[in-house]
Amino acid sequence: MSSFFTGLTLFVMGLVVIVLIRGLVNMARGGSGNTSNKLMQARVLLQAIAIVLIMVTLWITGGGRPT
Questions:
Q1: In this predicted model, which residue has the larger pLDDT, 2 or 33?
Q2: Taking the alpha carbons of 42, 24, 27, 31 in that order, is the dihedral positive or negative?
């Protein structure tokens, strides 16, 4: 179960990186401000999901405490 959450967390973190890069490319090319805003909103949402998944993974695995 913990490996599922670990994999899901890594997947969401990868999505955060992709959205961040797309936003930077859009900004560098002088793209639409509306698109940049939507990408920033998506990045913030994905980061929040990643943080929740990290916390759930730590909770399930015991947070690295010795057993």
A1: 33
A2: negative
